[in-house]
UniProtKB/TrEMBL annotation:
UniProt KW keywords: ATP-binding, Nucleotide-binding, Transport
A single MF term (Gene Ontology): ATP binding
Location of the ABC transporter domain: 6-229
Keyword ATP-binding recorded: yes
InterPro entries with a match to the protein in the record: AAA+_ATPase, ABC_transporter-like_ATP-bd, ABC_Transporter_VariousFunc, P-loop_NTPase, RLI1
One Pfam family in the UniProt entry: ABC_tran
Protein name listed in UniProt: ABC-2 type transport system ATP-binding protein
Length: 233
């Protein structure tokens, strides 16, 4: 892996009536868990979707694993969206098979191991799962891939504390820092902070700060949560 898994320069994106990203210049380090924080509407999800190739930037450049062509990105990135994108009529077993057919790097064996840890059963129908169970299943599907970059958009949003803790435990337990990098956008910074190696602050479509989490805490003498409170509230 290169020193930076993702290199972003001058990325801009406009939607009707909204300038979502205003020229983002950013390097995301390889082999780390990077947290992206910012208020609602700051541009976090837009940035993650552009990195993942789900929406097209207006201008600027993005390199992922030293590649800058979007046709190569799907093999490099596993993306977990904030919305529930799963087919409700499927069982978990059918969803596992669907992902196995869709992604060449998907491991059904790893998926079944993670399902056991997440207390999920293959014969359960997705329509009958609670919000917390759906969140755990979404993570299983992403972590069962061997993509170089795992991108998680608000994986802890709106779910119970027990599920949040299990998701974070699984994330850390499965993280292969020699071969993977994780980018995590979350509002649940109290639970997530201790797992973050690097933090990025974004507000109003602009990059405010990108720094090593330990260095930032040592320099400021405050937790990331306290710094977020100062910057955004």
């Amino acid at each position: 892996m290169s020193e930076n898994i993702i290199e972003i320069s001058g990325v801009k994106k406009k939607f009707p009536g909204v300038e979502a990203l205003k020229g983002i210049d950013l390097n995301i380090p390889a082999g780390m868990i990077t947290g992206i924080v910012g208020p609602n509407g700051s541009g976090k999800s837009t940035l993650l979707k552009i990195i993942s190739g789900l929406i097209v930037k207006d201008s600027g450049q993005i390199k992922i694993n030293r590649k800058n062509k979007y046709q190569h990105l799907m093999q490099d990135i596993a993306f977990l969206p904030e919305i529930n994108h799963l087919y409700k009529w499927m069982t978990i077993s059918e969803m596992i098979r669907f992902h196995e057919e869709q992604y060449s790097d998907f491991s059904p064996k790893k998926a079944e191991e993670l399902l056991n840890f997440m207390n999920l059963k293959l014969d359960q129908k997705i329509n009958n799962l609670s919000k917390g169970m759906v969140a755990r299943l979404k993570l299983v599907l992403v972590l069962s891939r061997s993509a170089a970059v795992i991108i998680l958009d608000e994986p802890l949003a709106g779910i119970d504390p027990a599920s949040r803790e299990r998701i974070l435990e699984t994330l850390i337990g499965e993280f292969d820092s020699d071969n993977q990098s994780i980018i995590l956008a979350t509002h649940e910074i109290i639970e997530a902070e201790r797992y973050l190696d690097h933090v990025i602050f974004i507000e109003n479509g602009k990059l405010l700060l990108s720094a090593n989490a330990d260095d930032l805490r040592a320099e400021k003498g405050k937790s990331i949560r306290e710094l977020i409170g100062e910057v955004f509230e």
